[in-house]
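Quick one, probably user error.
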């Protein structure tokens, strides 16, 4: 991930290890560049624009059908090339759609990282999807039912604020430390406390 250096990733891994040393719970941090490619959006918007081209030409000009068709093709391919540019492509997709895709990716990662299989159901996922500017904390039932309402939302708000200010590593470390304190309060380390999940930042494409 371009905005996280190797040193940042080591800091985040160390923060996870330190937090888990104080609890029997498990914390997994995941960051992905994007939760979907949204490749359908450039084609859809370019096609819609091309479909509008003939109407003014038919009603207000004497241009032949062949030239109108050529104009449609030119508009379609010109806009497609523009809309395929990654930042433009993301801009074309409604925020609600991007957040829905990112949330689905977070749930997929919660299951893929086996957070739902931890003893005591104390797994917590800290998830960030960069393209969607989306962050989420997903907690399994064991810890979720023990923390006050709004706890995870507050952690996410502080995480996104630090990311927005150009300090993503600080945001992850703070979110991990806060999550660790909640886990330690309700699930202190036991005599037998295996480290069930990885203690490093998981970076997805």
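Nope, works fine. Designed sequence:
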């Amino acid at each position: 991930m371009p905005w996280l250096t190797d040193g940042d990733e080591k800091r985040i891994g160390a923060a996870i290890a330190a937090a888990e040393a104080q609890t029997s719970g498990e914390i997994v941090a995941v960051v992905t560049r994007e939760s979907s490619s949204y490749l359908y959006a450039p084609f859809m918007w370019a096609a819609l624009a091309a479909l509008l081209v003939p109407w003014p030409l038919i009603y207000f000009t004497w241009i032949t059908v062949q030239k109108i068709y050529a104009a449609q093709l030119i508009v379609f391919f010109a806009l497609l090339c523009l809309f395929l540019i990654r930042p433009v492509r993301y801009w074309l997709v409604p925020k609600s759609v991007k957040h829905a895709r990112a949330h689905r990716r977070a749930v997929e990662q919660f299951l893929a990282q086996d957070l739902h299989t931890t003893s005591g159901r104390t797994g917590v996922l800290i998830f960030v999807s960069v393209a969607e500017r989306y962050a989420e904390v997903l907690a399994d039932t064991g810890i979720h039912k023990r923390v006050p309402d709004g706890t995870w939302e507050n952690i996410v708000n502080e995480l996104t604020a630090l990311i927005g200010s150009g300090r993503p590593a600080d945001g992850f470390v703070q979110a991990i430390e806060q999550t660790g304190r909640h886990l330690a309060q309700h699930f202190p380390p036991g005599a037998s406390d295996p480290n069930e999940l990885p203690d490093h930042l998981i970076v997805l494409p």
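The first strand starts at residue 26 and ends at 32.
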